[in-house]
Structures are given as structure tokens and as C-alpha cells.
Amino acid sequence: MASSSDVTPSAGDTPEPTGDTESVSARRGRVRLRRAAVMAVPAAAVTAGLAILTAQGALGVQFAISGMPFTVTATELDGTGFAQFGGLDNMAEGSPNAGDTGGQVLVVTSVIKNATLTKLCQSVDLGGTNLLITAGGGGTKVSASDLTTDSTELSGDAAFDNIEIGNDASTLDKAGPKGRGPIGVFSQQADTVHIANLRQTNYATTAGVFKLPGLKMRFSESGC
Amino acid sequence: MAADRRRGFRSAFRHWRSGRPFWGGLLLALGGAEVLFTMKASLKVVLHVGMQGVAGYLLPVLMLLCGLLTLVNPAQRLFYSLLGVLASLGTWLTSNLGGFLVGLLLGCVGSCLVFGWLPDQEPRRARRRRRKEARAAQGSPLPPAPPAGEPA
Fold first, then answer.
1. Could you read off the pLDDT of A99-119 as tens digits, one per residue?
2. Which helix (H) or strand (E) holds A70?
3. Is residue B12 a contact partner of residue B37, using CB atoms and an 8 Å limit?
């Protein structure tokens, strides 16, 4: 008698062994909406604030894109401290993009210590659609520091001040410590650079702090 | 036989999933991975660019780790979600506008889901009703009695 009265309440307390699937579906954690909103509201506010500050040009943003070729255009580029040298970029071993190139791409590395760009446009081809970023269309220009680009194509109307052509890339000094290449490579450098109607196809990398007043980011059928 | 085993696996997976903020952790980790994907710059160039370039890698890795750790160790989810949301917001400055906004949004939504997640509890309405019932049952026979018999 005593044993049977012991068993019944304990079975009622722990229903796990019998109705397993039911108890699983009944006992699951859940996202509480109000609790999530405690974090979501400030996070959304900060995101909006960052975007607005960036669009006003008050905040600099770091760029480092790679792996896929992308296009950069600008109606005008002015820079101080310019260096340019050749280089060889290696793809990852067995990369499907390698084709018959042996996985190596010849690029021109351009380094500009301080640059301002008017009507910057950058597009990345995502296959079918392009991610388009434009900035600097209004009164204030886009400014960038230590702008480093590895390009396969570079076109525009260029003017240089105090240009030195044919230096060894390891001896460059006008674009700071970042504008120095490997020893034994052809290079050129200049005090200032002005390029109108700039168009670059960048294979590997651009990196530097960008200030992007009037930032707009959108998807588009056509690139820059 | 195979279907049976699969069902067993799926119910085990569902059971595992129900005990942790699964979607939040997954979104946070995916956001970190997306930002890292847009950053595929060669490490040589990053070192060339310096400290800020390294931070661009550090924050998405932190997002990825926070997301995975949320899944592995859900008890610490509040800490991971706070760290995750801060890292996600930081990637706007350091890593291609937060992986062109996609990774940043994934990370923020994931972190909020993790933050808002609570383990199994009875629905609040049932709890409130039960409390009210207990009070009513206690109140009518002996109004001034302290709630000694009420289970906390």
C-alpha cells in the first residue's frame, strides 16, 4: 500500500520518461519580445547613428575588400604623396578563379598618402546584381588616408608634380612607410597627383580609412 | 530503419536546439562569417596597412566566436550577446561598413534574439492567474494571513 502511494505522485512530478516528444515540444526556450527589444532598440539607434555620422563625413570607415574584382570611379582624384609599383598577387591554392593564369595576377599597387575624391563610385559584381556605393556627390569630397589599391586596370587623365620614374620600389619615400615595394621592382613616385575621370579595376585590395560624406549604398543592375 | 534513426536524430537535434538560443547564436555566427568573407584581403596587405586593418579581422572573428559559444554554452548568453552586439556595431567602422551592412544586421538581430531568449518557463498569464487564485484562496478564509503556504 505504502509503496503504491509513493509511486503515483513522483510519476506526476517527472513526466519525462513517458511522453518524451510532448514534453520536448512543451519545454523549449523562447525569445521574449520585450526582452529582445531592450537590446534591439539601442542597437538600432546606434546603427542609424553610425550611418548618419558616416554619411556626414564625420566618421571614417575602413575598407578592405578582396577576392572579387571591383570597380572604382571618381570624376576627380587629388592626392599628396603618391607611389606606384608593380606586384604579383597570389590566389589561394586551387582557387577556381585561377583559370590558366597559374593563380597569379600581375597588379599595379598605387599608394596615396592623403587623397580626396569627387563623386566616388564603387561597385562589386555579385553575379547578376551589383552592389553600388556612392559618396562625395555633394559639396564635401570623400577623403582617404593611406589609400592602397592593387589594380589590373587604371585609366584617367593624370598630372603629377615632381615625378620620379624608375626608382627601385624599396627606396620610395614620398608616400610614407606604406608606399614601399619589394626590392628590385620598377616604381615611380610623385609629390602630388591629380587624376580626372579616374577608373580603376581593382583586383585585390583597397584599404585605408575613408570618410564618405553623402554615403549611399544600393543594389543596381549596372555597375559604375 | 533509416527513417527511424533519422527521426531519432531530428528529435535529438530539436531537443538540443530547444535548450539554447539556437537561431540567435546561428545568426550572430553567420554575420561574423559574412563580414570575414567580405574582408578576404591577403594578410600581407593587412599587415602593410597596420593596426586598423587587424581590427577589421578581430571584430568579425569575435562575432563568430560569440555566436558559436552561445550555442555551446548558453548559460553565458547575456555576456556573449552584449559582446556580440558591440562587435557587430564596431564592424561598421573597421570592416567594409559591416560587411556592406548585411553582416552587421545579421549580428545585431542575432544578438538581440540571444539577449531576449529565456529558457523554458510557464506562460506568464498562467502564472499570474495561479498567483491570483492562490491569493484569492488565501484571502477569503483568513484575510491578514501572511503568504506562508505560497510556493515562491
1. 666 666 677 888 899 999 999
2. strand A70-90
3. no
Q: CA end-to-end span of chain B, whole Å?
A: 47
Grid cell for residue B124: 506568464
Predicted confidence (pLDDT) per residue in A30-49, tens digit: 888 899 999 999 999 999 99
Helix axes B22-38, B77-94, angle to 10 degrees: 20
Return the domain boundaries, chain A: 2-49, 60-220
A124 within 8 A of A131, measured Cβ to Cβ: yes
**Is the Cβ pair A67, B104 closer than 8 Å?**
no
Which among B26, B42, B70 is the top mutation candidate for probing chain A, defined by the most A β-carbons within 10 Å of its own β-carbon?
A: B42
Averaged pLDDT, B82-95: 93
pTM value is 0.74
A203 phi and psi, to 5 degrees? -85, -55
Domain assignments of chain B as residue spans, ordered by start: 25-118
